[in-house]
Amino acid sequence: MLKQLEMRLASFNQHHVLRFWAELDLEQQQQLARQLERVDLELMAKLFQKTRETTDWSGLAKRANSPPSVTLANQAEPKLRREAIAVGEQALRAGKVGAILVAGGQGSRLGFEHPKGMFPIGPLSKRTLFRMLIDLLKARAAHHQTRIPLFVMTSPATDQATRLHFADELNFDLPSEDLRVFCQGTMPAVDAATGQLLLASPSELFLSPDGHGGMLQAFHESGCLNEARVRGIEYLFYCQVDNPIVQLCDPLVIGLHLRNQADVTTQAIRKSHPLQKVGNIVSVGDRLEVIEYSDLPEELAHERLPDGSLRIWAGNIAVHVFSLSFLEQAARNVTSTGSGLPFHVAKKKVPFVDEHGRLVQPATENAFKFERFIFDLLPMAKRAMVVEVDAAEGFAAVKNPDSSPTESPTTTQAAIMAQQIRWLKSAGVEVANGVRVEIHPSVAHDAETVRQHFTGSGPITKDSYFVRN
Ligand code: UTP
Predict the structure, then answer these.
(1) Of the residues 12, 53, 116, 364, which has the maximum number of CB atoms within 10 A of its CB?
(2) Atom of ligand 1 nearest to the CA of 208
(3) Residue 372 in 3-state DSSP?
(4) Phi/psi class of residue 187: alpha, beta or left (left: φ > 0; alpha: ψ in -120 to 50)?
(5) How far is the CA of 105 from the centre of ligand 1 (A)?
(6) Nearest CA owner, ligand 1 atom 25
(7) pLDDT of the residue at 405
(8) What are phi and psi of 226, to 5 degrees?
């Protein structure tokens, strides 16, 4: 078996990973051999080759137009809204909607020692991101007297801790048939100069999760896609674990998706400034594409239309509705770089074991990492639709630690409270300045249910967490 492995590695010039083989015990040897069996060496060679190619983002951005969109940010088109909500509610009631929550990221910027989903974010309740989102999902399901199965994606970096957390929390009281946890794949990192696989220890490759776009392959290969089909799910609402104010399974966006017979419907925010660090959703020909903020040339980011608005305005917040049939079709699509979505490359600092067995912490970017992005499903869709949402009503991601002025736990908590105070005030409830408020979704989960529950209530003069007993 070793001979075969050696030959396979040698033919791709990756033989160096067996350099410490003789010093490893049997278990370590087996571990390394198992890891290596799962690496597609041909794919790694192709991807390394691709790191030398450049994409003409500037050319693409010049050809790009603003995507056609429907706006939810104002009360325009009340009839369209009403009709779409009715259609979305019907799909929810009929049990045709499931939710996918991706939680496989390493959360390196936040620097939290557990999976990010375990971060306590509730401004007063200190509920974790997982609990906040699942409470919201349960409230949505109860409101529409339906069930919404939840598919949680983990990665080898978060899987065990996430499963233990769910077990400790008794699966947040979700019925067992409504919860599936599936694990995404990993990708090795390679030396940026040579394309050689990096070792994290003498007996282990350096592996990291293959990006949120790994969802497609993992959802398919874990059997979850098929299970969703068998259960009668037709639409999957996709969101990420770091955004606790996502309009989770919102009937309006689901209804718009259905009425448009879309493959994908994606929520976008109007960028608050040209260089905001969100992906840019654009339309090129008859397809939607996302240009990452780092790839959009600055002068193009600043371009404005005659009315003064940004030409490239649509910021990606990673909230999508997918038709199940579209995901099935995309999952079967095999390209030159394997099945699933394409890989993006990023040059990063990756610690590695050198030829003397010493762990090196590089001072500069030394390696290529490869990740898939979920937004690459957009250009694959024949019918893709953009729905504009007000950022204050749907996007407050936790990315950075509190030392950062943006996208930190503090800014997210402020956004949660500001939203709920806005809902209360529009229901006619007085809220004293500086008071901290949190509403558990079982009490009310959106502006309308806040209006139903709180109209006529007295002023809120002290910090208050509203929760059902
Ligand atoms: P980010 O790209 O912001 O990554 O993920 P992250 O892991 O949360 O944080 P950094 O970049 O290491 O600081 C956005 C969402 O996609 C999920 C994350 O869990 C988060 O919900 N994700 C990311 C995955 O599920 N898998 C991945 O491989 C990467």
Answers:
(1) 116
(2) 28
(3) coil
(4) beta
(5) 3
(6) 104
(7) 95
(8) -65, -40
User: Looking at residue 69, what is its pLDDT?
Assistant: 81
How distant is the alpha carbon of residue 45 from its chain centre? Answer: 28
Q: Please identify, by atom number, the ligand 1 atom nearest to the C-alpha of residue 397.
A: 3
Every domain of the chain with CATH number 3.90.550.10 lies at: 56-399
CATH fold group of domain 56-399: Spore Coat Polysaccharide Biosynthesis Protein SpsA; Chain A (3.90.550)
Under 8 Å between Cβ of 47 and 370: yes
Number of other CB atoms surrounding residue 54 within 10 Å: 6
Task: Look at residue 153 in the predicted model and tell me its pLDDT.
Answer: 98
* Per-residue confidence (pLDDT) for residue 87, from 0 to 100: 98
Within 13 Å of residue 149, how many CA atoms lie on the same side as its CB?
A: 23
Averaged confidence pLDDT in the chain:
95
* 129 CB-near residues (< 8 Å, 6+ apart): 116, 117, 118, 119, 121, 241, 242, 244, 398
Model confidence at 73: pLDDT above 90: no
Buried b / exposed e across 415-428, counting CB within 10 Å, b at 16+?
bbbebbbebbeebe
Ligand 1 nearest-atom number relative to CA 372: 28
| Ligand 1 center–CA 146 separation, angstroms | 30
| Best CA proximity match to 253, nearest among 70, 409, 418 | 70
- DSSP helix, strand, coil percent of the chain (3-state; round to 5): 35, 20, 40
Q: Which residue in 209, 220, 255, 207 sits closest to 100, CA to CA?
A: 220
pLDDT of residue 336: 57
CA–CA distance, 183 with 348 (Å, rounded to integer): 24
Dist CA 402 CA 425 (whole Å): 28
pLDDT band at 358 (very low <50, low <70, confident <90, very high): very high
For 6-40, write each residue's pLDDT tens digit.
999 999 999 999 999 999 999 999 999 999 999 99
User: Of 419, 418, 400, 422, nearest to 409 (Cα)?
Assistant: 400
Q: pLDDT grade, residue 89 (50/70/90)? A: very high
Cβ of 188 below 6 Å from ligand 1: no
- Which residue has the CA at smallest separation from atom 10 of ligand 1? 107
Question: Which pLDDT does position 54 carry in this prediction?
Answer: 86
Tokens of 438: 């949190």
Quick one: which atom of ligand 1 is closest to the CA of 106? 7
pLDDT digits (tens, 9 = 90+) for 121-175: 999 999 999 999 999 999 999 999 999 999 999 999 999 999 999 999 999 999 9
pTM for the model: 0.96
Count Cβ atoms below 10 Å from residue 163 Cβ, excluding itself.
Answer: 14
Could you tell me what percent of the chain has a pLDDT over 90? 91
In DSSP terms, 271 is beta-bridged to none
